[in-house]
C-alpha cells in the first residue's frame, strides 16, 4: 500500500520537474493536472485501505534522508484520515484546473510546477514517521503554496499578500522546529515512537504546547494569527485557494493534533484543552462575523474557513480536556466531532472555493456587488453552490450539520469535567460556537442570495456562461460527497475509529451507531436519513396541499419587488440601487456586533445646506489583528533593522572582533556546560 | 602515553614552544622581531610534524614538516621582510589594545582553551588531548593578535599563527590525510599573496599600511 503511496509522491515530483521546461505548452495545464488528479485518487485509495484495515503501515527505511537516522514513510489511522481529505480535495482541485485555458483565463506557466509540489508536501507531512520528515514536508507545503499565492504577482495586493503569507509561514516553521526539538530532546531521537515513549513534563510540556499552538495555529489561521488568510486566498488561483482552505489548514490541524494529542502522551493535564478552546471559540466568532461583512467572494469564504478551523480546534481542545479528566467516551466524542468536521469542511469548502472560481471565470468577478442572478445562467454551479452553502450553514441533512451537532453535544457535556472554571468555559464555548454557527448561516445566506439570486448587477454578470465540463464535474464531486457525508455520518465516523484511537487512546466506542451519530451514553442521537425522509415528506405534503388541495386554481402573479418600479427596457438589470447590495445586507450585523468586535465605524459627510457637492457615506471595519498584532510587529521589525544597520558601519577590525567574541563566548559556554 | 615517556614529553615541549612563541608574538614592539618569532614558530611547527611522523610511523608527515619548514620558516618570513624593506614601513607595532592587556587576555584565552578541550577529550589518548589544548590556544592567540594590531602586516602574521595552530592540531591526530595539509599550505600561500597585494594597494593609494586609515575612505563610515 505504501508502494502505491510512494509511487504517487514520485509522480507528483516528476510532474513538477517536467512542468518547468514544458510549462508554456498549450496542453501543459491539462496534462499536469490530470496527473495530479490520478495521484490524488491514489491517495484516496491508500487512505481508504489503511482506514478499512485499521492497521498502521510503515515502510522500509528510505534510500535517502538525514544522515543520523533512517527515514521511513508510514501511515496510521490519524494520518490516513487526513490523507483521505487531502485526496478528495486534491482530486476536485486538479479536476477543476484541467479546464485551465478553456475559460479564457489560462494560468501563468509559473503557477504549474508548484502545484504538484504543494500536494506532495502535504502528503509527505502526513506520511512522516519522524519529526524531520514532517517538518520537511510542512515547509515544502508552505513554500510551494507561497509560490502559488505569488503566482499572479503583477498586482501589488497579491505581492503584499504573498509577503505576509511567507512571514506567517516562517513563523510557523520557527515555532514548530523548537517544539519538535523539545520533544526530541527529552526522547533522544527524532522518530515518533521514541517521542511517544518519553512524554515531556513541566516547563518543557508547557513550551511544547505554546510553540505547537503558535506554529500550527499560524498555518491553520487561528485567531491572533489569521491575518494572512483573508488576503492570501483571494490572491491564489481558485483551485489553489480551494486546496489551501480545504486541505492545507487541516494539515496544520493534523500537526497540532499529532503534536499535542499523540506525541505528548495521554497523561497531559486537563487544562491543556483550555487554550485550544479559547482560541478556537475566538476564531469561530471572529471568522463568522467577518464572513458577514466581506464583499469579496473568496475573502468571505476564507473568513468562513477561519470560523471552521476554530470549531475544529474547539473539538481538539475538548478532547484534550476530557482525556485529561479520564472521560474516555466524551474525549472520543469531541475528537470524533473534530475529525468529522475537518473532513466535512474540507470537502464542502473545496467545493465552495471552486464555485467561486467558476463564477470568476463565468461571470468575470469575485465581488458580490457585481454578481447576481447567476442561478439562471449557471444552473449546475448554482446547484453545487447551494449544497455547499447549505452545508456551511449547517443545515440538516447535510454534512456540516452532522459534525457541528456532534461538536455542540461535546461542548454541552463540558460540565462533566469537575473543575468549575472549565465548566463555565465550556458553557461559554457552547454559546460562542452556536453563535458562530448562526452567523455562518447568515453569511452563507447573504453569499448565495447576492451571487445567485436576484437580478444581475453588471453587464458582465448578465452575460455569464456556465462553467466548462471539467469545472462542472469538479463542482459536483464535492457537492455529491457533501450529501453522502451528511446522510451517512455514522459510517464515515466508523472509518475514523483508527484515527480516534491515535488521538484518545483505545476507544471504548466510536460515537456512532450504524448510520446514526450517538452522543454520550446513547441518550441523544442524530439520524440524518430519518431527518432527510421527514424533511422530504414535509416538503411533499406542503407541495401537495398548496398545489393540489387548495380550493382555488393556482395563479402566477407578479413578484413583489419591494415597492420599486419595474426596470425600464433600456436598463435590463434595473437600477443597482433597487437591489440590496453586499454592504446593505451586512449593515445590521456590522452595527450590532462589528462595532465592538471589529472596530466597525460609519462616517457620514453631509454637505451644508446650499453646498453643491454630494454627500458621502463610508462604512468599514478593521480586523483587530491589524493594529494589535501586525502593526507592533512591523514597528519592531523596523527597530531591529535600524539596529542591524549600525553593524554595516563597523570597521574591519571590529567585525573581526565580533566574530572572535562570538567564538570565545561559545567556547566559554561549552566550558561552563562541561563543568556542570 | 603519559608524563615521563619520551614521545609525549617531546611533542608536549614542541607544542608548548609554539604557544610560548605566540605570546612572544603578542609581546613584540617591532615588526622585524614579530617576523623573526613567526619564522621560529614555523620551524618549531616543522619539528613537531617531523616528531609526529617519527612517533606515529607516518612517513607522509615528513613531507608536511618539509612544507611547513620551507613555507613558514623560510619563504614567508623572507617575503614579509622584503615587503617591509621595499615599502620602507614603520618598524614599530601599532596596537589597538596595549601590550600588557593583550598578554592578560592571552593568558585568559589559554585557560579557556584548556577548560574546553580537556573535559571533552577525557576518553581519548593523552597526547591528542594536550596537543589539542595547545593548538586551540595558539589559534585563539592568533585571532587575538589579528584584532589587537592595526598594522596590516601584523594582521597577516596573526592569520599565519592561527593557521600554525590548526596544523599543529592536524599533525597531532594519527591518520590525518596529507591532502588536507597540502591544500592548507596552498591556501596560506594564497592568503599571503592576497595580503601582499592588499598592502601594496594601500601603500600606493594612501602611503601607509594602517588599516584604520582605510576606514575613513570606505564611503559609508561617518
TrEMBL record, chain A:
GO CC term (a single one)? plasma membrane
Q: Which Pfam families match?
A: Proton_antipo_M
Membrane-spanning residues where? 29-52, 73-97, 117-150, 162-185, 205-228, 240-260, 272-293, 300-322, 342-362, 374-395, 420-453, 474-497, 526-546, 655-673
Protein location: Cell membrane; Membrane
Topologically, how does it sit relative to the membrane? Answer: Multi-pass membrane protein
Keyword annotations: Cell membrane, Membrane, Oxidoreductase, Transmembrane, Transmembrane helix
Q: Where is the NADH:quinone oxidoreductase/Mrp antiporter transmembrane domain?
A: 128-413
Task: Provide the GO MF annotations for this entry.
Answer: oxidoreductase activity
Q: Which PANTHER family match?
A: FORMATE HYDROGENLYASE SUBUNIT 3-RELATED (PTHR42682:SF3), HYDROGENASE-4 COMPONENT F (PTHR42682)
Q: Name it.
A: Hydrogenase 4 subunit B
Q: Which organism is it from?
A: Roseicella frigidaeris
UniProtKB/TrEMBL annotation, chain B:
**Membrane-crossing residue ranges in chain numbering:** 6-27, 34-55, 61-84, 96-120, 132-149, 156-176, 182-200
Recorded protein name is Hydrogenase-4 component E
Q: What is its main location?
A: membrane
Query: What InterPro entries does the database record attribute to this sequence?
Result: HyfE-like (IPR038730)
Q: Which keywords annotate this record? A: Cell membrane, Membrane, Transmembrane, Transmembrane helix
Localization, per the record, is: Cell membrane
Membrane topology field: Multi-pass membrane protein
Record has Hydrolase as a keyword: no
* Cellular-component GO terms for this entry: plasma membrane
Domain of life, source organism? Bacteria
